[in-house]
Amino acid sequence: MQRRLLRDGRVVVDEWKYWQEGADRGSAPVILAFNDWLKDRDAWIARAGRLGVILPASYSVERLVHDLARFELIGAEFSGPGDGRGYTQARQLREQLKFRGELRATGYVRRDQLFFLARCGFNSFEMADNELDEASEAFGTFSAAYQWSNDAGLRTPLRHQL
User: Fold this and answer.
1) Does residue 128 contact residue 98 with C-beta atoms inside 8 Å?
2) pLDDT per residue as tens digits for the range 54-94
3) Is 44 left (phi over 0), alpha (psi -120 to 50) or beta?
């Protein structure tokens, strides 16, 4: 069965495959766990095809700096409702490291988080399939903001209240 997710505010079929799910080393887009990337980095660099990586919450984005241009997708993994480290990772990737590829929230991702995740720079979200259709409405939760953010994951820019 194909995985669906939210990308850029729309429900889409995910063309990416996880290495742990049995993706092959061919040219199809593949997402690696960060430790799989480190373990076999040279072989992955030699491979033709799009690469993505999931960065564990406990790792600093600085660990990606030298290879950032090799990835078209970077995921941040949320372990539970109180885990906010992925928000920080997203802002650092977008604002400090200028990552322009797909930034994906994985793990514990719920509708009430989507708007705030998007404000930090996430533009794709893995969620339970039965939650996807209604979850896309979360991006219109607010039309204005008091705080500045990169808002890279929002299709419609927010008005900023002073």
Assistant:
1) no
2) 999 999 999 999 999 999 999 999 999 889 999 999 999 99
3) alpha
